[in-house]
Amino acid sequence: MPALSCLTLSIWASLGHATELNTDFLQGVSGVPSVLKDNVAYPAGHYYVDVSLNGQHTSRMVLSISVAEEQAGMLCLSPQWLQEAGVLFKPTAYQDTFDKDRECYTLASKESTGVNFSLGAQTVDFAIPQAWLVEKNDATRWDYGVNGLRLTYNGNFNQNVQTRNRYQDDSLNAYGHFNTALNVGRWVLSSDMNATRNTSGNTFDTNNITLSTAISRVKGDFILGRSQTRTELFSDFGFWGASLRSNSNMRAWSTRGYAPVINGVAPTTARITVTQNNYTVYSTVVPPGPYRLDDITPVGNGSLMVTVEDSAGRKTTTEYPVATLPTLLRPGDLEYNLAAGQRSDTNTVDDAFRSGTGTFVLGSLDYGLATTTVNTAFILHDRFQSAGLGLSQPLGVWGAFSASVNASKAEYDHGENRRGMSASFKYAKTLGDRTELQLLTYRYQSPGYTEFANWRPDERLLRPGGQLDAAGNYTFLSGKEKARYEARLSHRWDQVYMSGSFWQQSFWDRDRDALGATVTASATVFDGVSVNLSGNYARSTWSTRDDWSTTLGVSIPFTLGGVRHYASNSVSYNRDGDTAFNTSATATVSDRFNYGVNAGADSRNNRSAGVNAGYAFDRVQTNMALAQDRDTTTLSGSLSGSAIATRETGLLFTREASDTVAVVKIKDMPGVTFNNSLPTNSKGNTVMYLSSYSPASISINPENVPDSAELLNTSYEVVPTEKAIIYREFGFENVLRYILRLRDAQGAALNGGSATTEQGLDAGFITGNGVLLMNVLAAPKTVTVRKSNGEQCRFDGAQLKPNTGTVQEIRCE
Fold first, then answer.
1. Other C-beta atoms lying within 10 Å of the C-beta of residue 686
2. In angstroms, what CA-CA distances link 794 with 650, 767, 811?
3. Contacts (Cβ under 8 Å, ≥6 apart) of 676
């Protein structure tokens, strides 16, 4: 901090209550410095200031005030400074305050806007009307990050290290998943790959290889390469080509997902609180008159209780029954997908570009009307066409439903043309406060209906034999789905939760339907003890024997050696009369280390036991396990983490495995954390998790920052784009701090005066009790004190001890 600012801080620290300052001590100075004048709002100089917007801290910045700004009594701030400070507003609202010659904004010249600079507190507070601010995740705030390469990996292996019979497999089995991303400007080249090694051989396949960029104007992503389609009406499939599709994450968090729009009239200034299941999901204050709540946090099934409390304290509560479905959108919301390319029928890298179906075009559009959501989609191909239309409708107290109809036409190499249709219906409803009908589904497919994802024009060659009916004609009905029913129901008591599901599937060439059912119940008994009971039933259309099983489990917490453990025990029984018992105990010793032991036995005299442990290093997460049964001892393990390379930090290894990350640096300062990040390494670098398009504050935790370090900034506000590598560096200066009480040759405390080093740098102001707070960047050799009466004295800097935190008694002679 400059010398004048140090002097100013000392003055304000001791005389902050005074309205005028006695400047008699400024002997030999022509005029009074601007910082000491009461009528100067913006004294010229350079300052480290804490910036806040409408009372919320945004950043710590260097503020340079020119003489022209001091004389004008108004700051003129550049767009870059405002951007870095986190003061973001709608440019159109302040267009008339922009000085084209100086290329800066005089924000305070606009009505209802304030820029308040506090010299003593070293702060700048901006007061900007809410209507003129941009949304927290507005595109103007988006940060595409720095150029870099990121590799996220996780892998596991297992091998039988001891075998008692020759039928067991003793080879090494391994699996690895690798997600890579190369960031260059606003573009991201990414891939998602798997590698597998087992007795069948080695395979290497990929699900996605894309080059993509975010486009803010359409709230979507432009994607080139191999990716997946995404529609509500058709089955998704992989393809090579180009697509432009919406990204709901680009919207504000409070407007993602479905929530109803609530309208009303407030008689006075009122607070509106929205709760669901006794949890507050929204609260705001509105002025008198009509109001419209269209930004309620996404909700699930269950009634919304809307309470309006007026200025007199009167409350009125209205119940809004809500049932949701995945296809429901808020009024005005838009989801779309445009794609063109060739379908990819394989995930293996060797056959990555192999396809024989030709070029297709796909389009889908889902739009939220005032009370209805409309879903549309189509696929166009030389030999295949399909279209679909769907409607989703909330019904208030009656729940919500959606219905859709698809039609398709497909040509085949053997000359056959098939036409068909598919219809589906879904329904959801809350039955009282505790019972929920989560989903009731019915879907019907005619014999000729074909999904493009399943269309094989050469299917007769793909499925030779077994495709001829009694008359010797080719048939395609083998395993063809006809109708499917599905229902889910749940109910909760105070300490008990129960749910059940049922499904039934019929086929065109089978008289016997496939069906299944699951029932689960869980309860918390006392002191954290939980009990779980589940039952499963399944019937296959190709099997004459039904399958069923049931399991009872109990989890009991206990403390051993001061560490919380959890013991889990279960017993299961199946249709063959087999009974199996399993028990385990697990513990998380610290945020790095966990372990567990387990054992099992069944009615067929099989016995097993095992132990596992996991340790989280800064650079990698590891797990190891050893298991033994009657015939085999198996060793297994896993590891996960990521490697990140940027020009600013070089190569970093971390166990943080998020797609979107922040690389944070405080040079050569190890052991420092930011938010909940891992501690910095020896070079002062660390990596922390971020959520794409969600505003985040990267704040330094000062506990491990040395007292000698003067931080130039303490936090950054960021809105990262998807898969961005955000880079932020926290600057600091190594400051030597001295707390001195100065006495004259007779031992009396000095009363006022200013101190300078041998280099002429201002070192602070002496208070009335002789205390000098001296902050300097280099240890002074000598310090000269000019007293208020014009006399001078000196003391040797070699005797001073920096950063002790205690008062040092010094003779100034």
1. 25
2. 49, 17, 8
3. 688
Rounded to an integer, what distance in angstroms lies between the CA atom of residue 239 and that of residue 343? 4
CA–CA gap between residue 281 and residue 476 (Å, rounded): 52
Within 8 A by CB and 6+ apart from 727, the residues are 145, 146, 646, 648, 649, 662, 663, 664, 665
Asked if 642-733 and 736-811 have one fold, the answer is yes
Q: In what order do the strands lie in the sheet with 315-320?
A: 279-286, 270-276, 304-309, 315-320
DSSP string, 733-796: EE-EEEEEEEE-TTSPBP-S-EEEETTS-EEEEB-TTSEEEEEESS--SEEEEE-TTS-EEEEE
- Is 416:474 a contact under the CB 8 Å cutoff? yes
CATH superfamily for 736-811 is PapC, C-terminal domain (2.60.40.2070)
Residue 567 parent element (H or E): strand 563-574
Q: Give the pLDDT confidence score for residue 8 in this predicted structure.
A: 42
Q: Can you give the C-alpha Rg of the chain in angstroms?
A: 35
Q: Where are the domains of the chain?
A: 3-139, 259-320, 642-733, 736-811
Spatial contact of 612 and 623, defined as CB atoms under 8 Å apart: yes
- The rounded distance, in Å, linking the Cα atoms of 294 and 305 is 16
How far apart are the C-alpha atoms of 206 and 194, rounded to whole Å?
Answer: 6
CA distances for 793 relative to 558, 723, 775, 788, 810, angstroms: 70, 62, 19, 12, 12
- Reported pTM: 0.78
Amino acid 363: pLDDT: 96
Domain spanning 642-733 has what CATH number? 2.60.40.2610
| Coil, helix or strand at residue 539 | strand
Residue 25: DSSP 8-state:
T
Q: What does the alpha-carbon distance between residue 133 and residue 611 come to, in Å, rounded to a whole number?
A: 56
Q: Identify the CATH assignment for 259-320 out of 3.40.50.1470, 3.30.540.10, 3.50.50.60, 2.60.40.3110.
A: 2.60.40.3110
For residue 351, pLDDT beyond 70: no
CA atoms within 13 A on the CB side of 689: 8
What is the per-residue pLDDT across 728-758, written as a single tens digit (0 to 9) for each? 999 888 888 888 998 888 888 888 888 888 8
CB 501 within 8 A of CB 526: no
The position carrying tokens 């497999």 is 169
DSSP label of 163? E
Span 3-139 CATH architecture? Roll (3.10)
What average pLDDT does range 623-629 have in this prediction?
90
